[in-house]
């Protein structure tokens, strides 16, 4: 080995050691200021409720306040892009799902980031999906809905469905429903669940396949919306008052759920990711957090190791990209 090669190797080793020391130092001082929990939808929706069920306890785990920031628009991609444009120091956590990080880049041509630009730190919850209809839609079951939708389309007045943005999971569900039934339907995108719910209650849109929250129970009791079914394979105890869609005749296999997780930029130092993982996992073990999430009918997954989280995100990315391909969604 000549002297020049030895010098290059020594420099490389020194650089790696420096990076390692920097990462260790970052972990020892992290967090050095308040942490932002970025929610990619307006206040009032289920995503916001989840964040505010977690942030105070997470702040105690981290030893710094965790401040919720709501930034809606473009299927959540505006908030995601803001996170990516910030520093990779772990002081901004993205509360994300397949909506913003997997589907939006496939549906909106102006989005330049990729799913792989983010790293999943820990799964938070899995949401059940409710089949919501406007109060005066003349149906009381999923099978009645399908027949009504078919007749409306034949009469040249296809039903409209809400989503939280183009390419969102709820957009895909509506398109997939149209495809499997062979019934034309019209997509109406919103910046989040809250404005979509407002228009559903006002009768401006016909139905919304939405993440279920307890508030829908009260809305149904008050006659403001109809909950036709849950997109579950069986009737669950927590929502036993509603049929599982598997109980219908025409859409018995139309079963779906969606997960929410906490993400950071892919190049965040490993010691910082490990510190966040420990704090988030500890937060999920808190009885008050557990109760708050379950009160909103969130299904709590078993905490994952970082390796398990990496695999879950990779598998989820492949799954949703496959759905996009199946329905032929084109970026707009």
UniProtKB/TrEMBL annotation:
InterPro entries: BUG (IPR005064), Bug_dom1 (IPR042100). Pfam families: TctC (PF03401). SUPFAM superfamilies: Periplasmic binding protein-like II. Gene3D superfamilies: Bordetella uptake gene, domain 1, Periplasmic binding protein-like II. Residues 1-27 form the signal peptide. Keywords: Receptor, Signal. It comes from the Bacteria. Belongs to the UPF0065 (bug) family. This is Tripartite tricarboxylate transporter family receptor. The lineage of its organism: Bacteria, Pseudomonadati, Pseudomonadota, Betaproteobacteria, Burkholderiales.
């Amino acid at each position: 080995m000549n002297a020049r090669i030895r010098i290059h190797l020594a420099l490389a080793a020194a650089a790696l050691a420096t990076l390692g020391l920097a990462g260790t130092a970052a972990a020892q001082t992290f967090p050095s200021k308040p942490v932002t929990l970025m929610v990619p939808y307006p206040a009032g929706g289920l995503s916001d409720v989840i964040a505010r069920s977690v942030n105070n306890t997470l702040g105690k785990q981290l030893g710094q306040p965790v401040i919720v920031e709501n930034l809606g628009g473009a299927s959540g991609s505006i908030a995601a892009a803001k996170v990516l444009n910030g520093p990779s120091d772990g002081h901004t956590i993205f509360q994300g799902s397949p909506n913003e990080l997997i589907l939006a880049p496939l549906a909106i041509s102006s989005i330049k980031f990729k799913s792989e630009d983010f790293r999943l730190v820990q799964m938070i919850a899995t949401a059940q999906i409710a089949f919501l209809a406007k109060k005066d839609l003349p149906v009381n079951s999923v099978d009645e809905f399908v027949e009504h939708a078919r007749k409306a389309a034949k009469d040249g007045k296809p039903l409209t469905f809400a989503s939280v943005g183009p390419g969102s999971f709820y957009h895909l569900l509506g398109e997939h429903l149209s495809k499997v039934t062979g019934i034309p339907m019209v997509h109406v995108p919103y910046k989040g669940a809250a404005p979509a719910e407002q228009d559903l209650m006002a009768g401006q849109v016909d139905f919304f396949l939405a993440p279920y929250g307890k508030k829908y129970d009260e809305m149904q009791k008050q006659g403001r919306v109809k909950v036709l079914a849950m997109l579950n394979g069986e009737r669950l105890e927590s929502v036993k008052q509603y049929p599982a869609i598997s109980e219908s005749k025409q859409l018995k296999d139309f079963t779906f759920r969606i997960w929410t997780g906490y993400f950071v930029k892919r190049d965040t130092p490993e010691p910082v990711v490990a510190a966040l993982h420990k704090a988030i996992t500890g937060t999920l073990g808190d009885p008050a957090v557990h109760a708050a999430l379950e009160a909103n009918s969130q299904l709590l997954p078993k905490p994952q190791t970082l390796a398990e989280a990496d695999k879950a995100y990779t598998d989820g990315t492949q799954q949703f990209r496959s759905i996009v391909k199946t329905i032929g969604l084109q970026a707009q």
